[in-house]
Specification:
With 314 residues, the protein is an alpha/beta fold. The protein has helices spanning 6-9, 26-33, 57-69, 87-98, 109-113, 115-118, 122-126, 157-161, 173-187, 197-205, 215-228, 238-243, 245-255, 262-267, 269-276, 279-283, 286-290; strands at 37-39, 46-50, 53-56, 77-81, 120-121, 145-147, 165-170, 233-237. The strands form two sheets. The protein has a five-stranded parallel β-sheet with strand order 5-6-4-7-8, sandwiched between helices. It is globular, with a radius of gyration of 19 Å. It starts with 5 loop residues before the first helix and ends in a 24-residue tail after the last helix.
Length: 314
């Protein structure tokens, strides 16, 4: 697929975060009415407790469509980060590693389009406005690369039953919480009252936030699945990538069936991928300074200058 077509053919229309909710399907309306509901952290939408996890209302129908209709291929790679646990970084690293033979390093699509447009979310992008999207046109290269935040128990059966690969990443929960708090504050409308750190922490402890609860329904689910089937699920930790990115890129490549050759390692290919995908480098790209995610969020919101960790407020 010609990469010049991605921006006009492969990105769904933006969803404005202040749109009024509309449910046009009777069966779906009945489902929504049966679910517990809370306000989201930036106060513009509700969140529904669906299959044990809080899901933003604009994405709920997309999640259901994804579960009903997605048919995985054996070659698919599904990236599943818990929210605010290194999503942008994982997408960039995986895409650059898997596709390193398909372009010169300076022509890496991560540099032109950004990680979120080349490794697209099922619920926040692909299925957002279309219950039956053309999946073959949703991924630039082969194997197909996709992403989602939903828990293991809620994945479509086709993903679990085929030979597709899953890469999961989680993070220290307190750093994840601080990152989420800063992130949602940046999404808040200027005239909206900010959510205080104390209020956010109370909600966090109750598991009321996008993707929550943090541990039992999400991390533990993928951890157990990775122990039962280590050839299918690679379980990564954000802190390990920060401490030793080179070893973890090699681990990722080995898991995905595209290990680095000795010659590549001598040429510094692994180090070049690490540099290209570093958050410092990603922040300086025009696509991340000025572009928007199809969900309506500016790319630079994901790559703010603030170090979103517990140490940032202590």
């Amino acid at each position: 697929m010609d990469t010049t077509e991605i921006s006009k053919n492969n990105i769904v229309s933006t969803v404005l975060l202040d749109e009024k909710e509309t449910w046009d399907d009777l069966e779906f309306q009945e489902l929504v009415q049966s679910l517990p509901k809370e306000r989201d952290w930036w106060g513009t939408h509700g969140m529904y407790l669906y299959q044990g996890v809080w899901c933003p209302s604009p994405a709920l129908k997309a999640v259901v469509s994804f579960q009903k209709h997605f048919q995985a291929l054996d070659s698919d790679i599904i990236l599943i980060p818990f929210p605010k646990c290194g999503t942008t970084w994982l997408k960039a690293l995986t895409f650059s590693t898997v596709n390193r033979h398909q372009f010169a390093k300076e022509e890496n699509s991560v540099l032109s389009f950004g990680p979120h447009q080349i490794v697209r979310f099922f619920e926040y992008d692909i299925y957002l406005n279309n219950p039956s999207p053309d999946l073959d046109n949703c991924s630039l290269y082969r194997p197909r690369l996709f992403s989602t935040h939903i828990p293991f128990a809620s994945l479509p059966t086709s993903i679990k039953d085929c030979n597709s690969k899953i890469v999961y990443i989680c993070r220290n929960p307190m750093d994840m919480f601080i990152s989420l708090w800063f992130f949602t504050d940046k999404l808040r409308a200027e005239d909206d009252e900010p959510l205080s750190l104390d209020e956010a922490f109370q909600l966090f402890c109750r598991g009321i936030y996008n993707g929550g609860p943090f541990f039992f329904y999400h991390i533990l689910g993928y951890w157990k699945a990775s122990q039962e089937n280590p050839n299918k699920i690679l379980f990564l930790q954000y802190e390990d990538l920060k401490e030793d990115i080179i070893s973890n890129i090699k681990k990722l490549a080995m898991f995905l069936g595209c290990p680095f050759t000795e010659e590549e390692e001598k040429r510094g290919v692994v180090e070049e991928i690490a540099r290209t995908c570093s958050l410092g480098n990603m922040k300086e790209l025009d696509v991340n300074k000025y572009g928007r995610h199809s969900y309506g969020i500016k790319h630079n919101t994901y790559l703010g200058k603030q170090r979103w960790e517990i140490g940032a407020i202590l």
